Write the structure tokens for this entry.
Amino acid sequence: MLGKLIKNEFLNRWKPILGIYGIISILGLLYAFTSYVTEETKFENTYFDIFAAIIVITFAIALYVSMVAIVLMSFTDYGKRMFKEQGYLTHTLPVKTIYILIARMICDLCVCASMGFFYPFIICVGERNFSLFTQLAEYISMFIKDEGMLELLSDLIIAVILIVLFVLVVIWMYYAAYAIGHSSSSGKKLKSVFAYIIIYVVEMMLLAAFDVGIGNSLDATAYRNMIMLGLVAVVCCLVAITNHVCKNNLNLE
């Protein structure tokens, strides 16, 4: 059943995202074409130069706008399918709410991973310069030959895990706050904002207490490991809060 829920998440969310990627790809190819013509062929034409400038500006703006749009679409989809138009249908499915949330988490991570690859790649296409990937390949080659490979690999994996956990914390702070706000019959948006602020303040207080209490007495490795465990605990708590509200206190009216 979890597999079907994951498939449903992708079917609902990836079509508009792929559409955005398609538009950005076309703009990136146009940027690459215009820059090639103006820089390599030395073609001189006032109208073409204006066209090239428009493409550059449009591409640059589209990069930022599309990234924001994808994030906003993910949050909007969460609200629509969990609490608004499709809320009743979602919560009457013969599956546990936690499975729906886990499927959403997996899809969110895939969206973030796709953005992490697609945007650097399309920028390289537009600039007609793939040195970023060349340098990455050289780094990996040096990394493999290095005697301390296992230690470096461990550090790299932990760094990736920390980034993923930070992303999950940011996403689920919104999800939990939105769910808490929609457990009320009125003032849902305002209460969601207050819930988000409270969650953020509590997290900052816990982090400050950790630093003051035991953080200063730990070495770098132990401190990093404790932060990682703390982020895991925060994500689990936020998922548990969201799951509890959706199961027991949700108000869809």
Remarks:
- The mean pLDDT is 81.
- The longest helix spans residues 2-40.
- The radius of gyration is 23 Å.
